[in-house]
Amino acid sequence: MNSDGAIPTEAELIERARALLPALRERAARTHEEGNVPAESIAEMKHAGLFRIVRPKRYGGYEMHPAVLYEVQMVLAEACMSTAWVQGLLAVHDFQLALFDDRAQADVWGSNEDALISSTYQPVGKVTRADGGYRLSGHWRFSSGSAHGDWIFLGSIFAPEDGSAQPDLLTFLLPRSDYQVIDGSWNVFGMQGTGSLDIVVDDAFIPEYRTHSMTEGFEIDGQKGLKVNTAPLYRLPWGQLFARIVSSAQIGSLQGAYDAFLDIAGKRVSLADGTVMAESVSTVRLAARVATEIAEMRSTLRASFDAMMHHAETTGAIPMEERLRYRYEAGTIARRCARSVDAMMEILGSSGIDKASPILPFWRDIMASRAHFANNPDNIELSVGGHMLGKPSMERFC
């Protein structure tokens, strides 16, 4: 889609995403049942350029404001949250790869600008030093969209045996030939369509240049990719982009649920007194609350990244208090969306829980998304509160 070098506008990308919604809605049940985003959906999103939003221009990307990525993801989630989740993750990984040594970027994009990267950052791998790099083995879980990945990011804690440095969480970049995707390893009630399968690696060699350090990602300046990717975009903290990509699809999914709610409420007649549900005071009030909640979450997301981009374009450093606040805001989204969609389900009664109900898939996926570690605000509250009370923060993923 970018072969002529043209960079689309945000409005054009949103229009492309909206054009895909009818097909994504038609495939939503199949996506859930098969436990994977269909290949044709991936192909259509590639053709629309939806995986290139935060990729460096040097490799056919758009280098756009990160809020554009979340806007696209939220649009897709109005039809199918699993598809939006996978699109967002596979796209945001391009941002992290831009922080790697340029040799790693060339390995992935040099011969295939359509290459996709999946991930699982669980620090469960066994890693040892080797000449020129590392050797890695292990069994990881929860790699969303892994069936479509050409490469993968895997996490592991590395601590030098000589104690010369503190343990650090490293991300290792591996080609598809160096890992196994375990079919049938993802069986859940919601977000089944994300295909978050297990990954197995048996003694793979990873060159030093195909690694990225969480510490460097937090401190920003030491990241090797900044030598070649000099746009202010790449001075944003990687943890901020990732935390939002696993929470923004819920906002779009809540919008999809809200649209279904309004449609049902406008038609449903009470069996008790014959009144139309939309005339109920409780229905009207809930409609107002949910609409306002969606608008506030969207505006906060945009404002947060506007502020971070301003820092990246001027001072280059984002104050820690702001970083913690933005990270905490992202961590609350899944719970907020869950409360809203649950309230709509409750008021719809049997119209909500019917297996054919259009709101049910949104409820199911939003509820399931709370299980992701980044969507538990309890995990970040101690760092936020401690910082406010003058204690040093140990949080490095913000």
Explain what the structure shows:
The protein is α+β, with helices and mostly antiparallel strands. It has three domains: about 10-115, Acyl-CoA dehydrogenase/oxidase, N-terminal domain (Butyryl-Coa Dehydrogenase, subunit A, domain 1); about 115-210, Butyryl-CoA Dehydrogenase, subunit A, domain 2 (Beta Barrel); about 240-390, Up-down Bundle (Butyryl-CoA Dehydrogenase, subunit A, domain 3). Helices cover about 50% and strands about 15% of the residues. The chain contains 13 helices and eight strands. It has helices at about 10-35, 40-45, 65-75, 80-95, 100-110, 215-220, 240-245, 250-265, 280-315, 320-350, 350-355, 360-370, 380-390, and strands at about 115-120, 125-130, 135-145, 150-160, 170-175, 180, 195-205, 210-215. The strands form two sheets. A four-stranded mixed β-sheet has the order 1-4-5-8. Helix 4 (about 80-95) packs antiparallel against helix 7. The longest helix has about 35 residues, at about 280-315. The chain starts with 9 loop residues before the first helix and ends in a 10-residue tail after the last helix.
Beta percentage is 5-15%
The SSE string, one letter per element, is HHHHHEEEEEEEEHHHHHHHH
Radius of gyration: 21 Å
Low-confidence stretches: none
What structural category do the secondary elements indicate? alpha+beta
Q: Indicate the overall shape.
A: globular
Mean pLDDT over all positions: 95
Major sheet attributes: 4 strands, mixed
Strand order of the largest sheet: 1-4-5-8
CATH architecture of the largest domain: Up-down Bundle
Compute the separation of the termini in Å.
33 Å
CATH topology heading of the largest domain: Butyryl-CoA Dehydrogenase, subunit A, domain 3
Q: Class of the largest domain in CATH?
A: Mainly Alpha
The helix count comes to 13
Fourth-tier CATH superfamily name of the largest domain = Butyryl-CoA Dehydrogenase, subunit A, domain 3
Q: What is the strand tally?
A: 8
Q: What is the chains' assembly state?
A: single chain
How many domains, as an integer?
A: 3
- Percent of residues in helices: 40-55%
